[in-house]
Specification:
This protein is mainly beta. The protein is built from one helix and six strands. It has a single domain, classed as Trypsin-like serine proteases (Thrombin, subunit H, Beta Barrel), CATH 2.40.10.10. It is globular.
Length: about 110
């Protein structure tokens, strides 16, 4: 636990604002994208990685439309938010496609 953060909430000086949702339709190939997760181990929680959007509406086996990016999709990031350069959630980190060694395929919001 973060003692300073806990103390700030206890005395009422900290507030939480909900994150806004964006849309994958607003993404541009080449735009910065961020992911948040727990890389490999709980001791590495709240890790953030940065990458770029390298594809939109990508299909894998014709089943899903995905956002493709080049950030490091480490174990523990699945289910975390994919955040655009405006700080809005635009997708959910879903998997690392290993067959062709591509990384960062994400489901749009």
């Amino acid at each position: 636990m973060d003692i300073c953060l806990d103390a700030a909430f206890a005395d009422g000086t900290a507030t939480l604002e909900p994150i806004e949702f964006g849309t994958a339709m607003s993404l541009i190939i080449g735009e910065d994208i961020y992911s948040i997760g727990t890389a490999f181990d709980i001791n590495l929680r709240n890790s953030i990685t940065k990458g770029i959007i390298s594809g939109i509406d990508r299909e894998v086996y014709g089943d899903y439309k995905l956002i493709q990016s080049d950030f490091a999709a480490n174990p523990g990031f699945s289910g975390g938010p994919l955040i655009d350069s405006e700080g809005k959630v635009v997708g959910m980190i879903s998997f690392k496609y290993k067959e062709n060694k591509s990384e960062g395929n994400n489901q749009p919001t």
